[in-house]
Structure formats: C-alpha cells, structure tokens
Amino acid sequence: MIETTESLRDCPAPAKLNLFLHITGRRPDGYHALQSVFQLLDWGDTLHFTLRADGEIRRRNAIAGVPEESDLVVRAAKLLKAQTGTRLGVDIDIEKRLPMGAGLGGGSSDAATTLLALNRLWKLRLSRETLCSLGLTLGADVPFFVFGRNAFAEGVGEALRPVALPSRYFLVVTPKVHVPTAAIFSDKSLTRNSEPVTITDFLAQQSCDARWPDSFGRNDMQPVVVGKYAEVAQVLEWFDRVAPARMTGSGSSVFAAFTSIAEAEAAQAKLPAGWTSAVVRSLDTHPLLAFAS
C-alpha cells in the first residue's frame, strides 16, 4: 500500500469465508439471527483513493452490473461524509477480483475498506466502534471487515468476538452462477431453528483438527442453494472425492481447507477444465486494521 497526504493507493479489500453458518431464528424486525465464524483471506479487491478538495465523491471506473449510485463503495463514502460533515471528497478506483454473488463478501469488504481508508485520508479519527455502526447500515457483513479480525459472529453478523484460527490454505471454487442472498433468506425451505452453539464449542473442535472443522456445524443455506443451482451441487459432489468442503455464505463459492499450499494446489490441479478457482491463504487480521482504533 502507498500512502501520501493526497492519496491512498493499493488498499486491500479481503474476501471472507464462513467456516460454518447456522440460522438460529428470525428476529421481530424480520432479520435472521445467525451464528458463524468469519475467516479473512489474503485475496480480494484493491481500491485506490485520491483526495478531492471540492467535496465531490466519484467512482472513476465502471463495474458491470453495478451503477455508481448503488455501489456500496460510493454509498459508504457518502455516508461517512454526511455523518462527519467533512468538506473533502474523493476519487475512487476499484480493481475487482472477487466474483459477485459468491458469498465471499466482496461488496461488503469494498465498503469497509472505503470507511477505513477515508477515516485515514480525511483525518477523521473515528473509532472502530463508530465505523462498525456506520457499516451495519450498509450491510450485515460490513462490520466484520471493519472489525478486522477473524471472528465468532452472532446477531445478524454484527456481534463479533475475535477468535484465533490456525494458518491454512483454501481451495475456493466458484460456479458460474450469481446467488441472490435475499432470495435464499426468504426461501420457505430454509431452516431457521439451529440450536445455538458457543465459541467454546467451536474452539474445542479446532484444537482437535487444525485442518478442517468438518465435524463442527454446517451451512444452513447450503441445502437451499443446492436445490436451486445444479452448478453448486456439481462442485460439492466433485469435492466429495477430494476433500471435505462447504459453501460459504449464501453461495455460490465452495471451499476446502488444507495445511499446505502444495496440498491445495494438488487438489486444484484435479479440477475439471473451465472451472473458476483460487488457492488462497488465511489472514489473521485485516491489512487496514491500524486505520481505526
């Protein structure tokens, strides 16, 4: 990352995985209560921010299917400006690498990186707690990326406690389908009655198996997505012959964990031709963790 008084270049927006995802109920406000463990990845989008003195906020590059006015990055910048009253503006360039509709948190991570980077570039000095609260108004996953550490999550995903996870490599395979999260949450076949677990339950399983918590939990959304998208089912069936795997978030990406990059790449080499995949490393903290306190 390159930092000057006029710009912040090469700001990472890392992806995430849900190591498990349980839906424990539906709240009175209509949102779903869930439990999950979020894992940061050393893989994601890259954002560049250039200071403007005229107060304007502009996204300088087009992103297919994402109009500027509805982009979470632009919305995050405008929210931060409105909440703080700063007269400064910014030009934003986004290098997209993460697939959309894949359960990897790309849009939410981009928004969180925007909040963190502009907190620094605009010299706002807002606390991490304040930025998390602002991020929640943009999306349920945004607070996790602002929080900046691997986390045990509850509520709608905003109640976060840091959790130490072993260093691992992941093979992430993304079918060529876009899964709309809202449609999966509203599906009548989605179970919403998983028994609550504790962070102690999860950590006890981790201590037994650093490679993969296969016997711990599940993704409650996975059966719904598999029933709707044959491509996701196909990827999971392929992994059945290679390594334990699970869908992340509301899909469509599916992942398996390995203790070495060689193992992960060996599995990747067996993939059918034309499948989209990445071998990525786990992260302990967000690269922009120091941009809020």
Describe this structure in words.
The chain is of the alpha+beta class. The chain folds into 2 domains: 2-163, Ribosomal Protein S5, domain 2 (2-Layer Sandwich); 169-283, 2-Layer Sandwich (Alpha-Beta Plaits), CATH 3.30.70. Helix content is 29%, strand content 28%. The chain has helices at 72-84, 106-121, 128-136, 142-147, 181-185, 199-208, 222-228, 230-239, 261-268; strands spanning 2-3, 7-26, 32-52, 57-59, 89-95, 151-154, 159-162, 169-174, 246-247, 254-258, 276-283. Helix 7 crosses helix 8 (230-239).
**Helix residue percentage:** 25-40%
Shape: globular
The main pleated sheet reads as: 11 strands, mixed
CATH class of the largest domain: Alpha Beta
- The averaged pLDDT comes out at 93
Detail the poorly predicted runs. none
CATH architectural arrangement of the largest domain: 2-Layer Sandwich
Give the total of domains.
2
Structural class: alpha+beta
Rg calc: 19 Å
Count of alpha/pi helices = 9
CATH topological fold name of the largest domain: Ribosomal Protein S5, domain 2
Measured by DSSP, the beta-strand proportion falls in: 25-35%
Question: Summary?
Answer:
The protein is an alpha+beta fold. It has nine helices and eleven strands.
Keywords for this entry:
293 residues, alpha+beta, Ribosomal Protein S5, domain 2, Alpha-Beta Plaits, 2 domains, 11-stranded mixed beta sheet, 9 helices, 11 strands
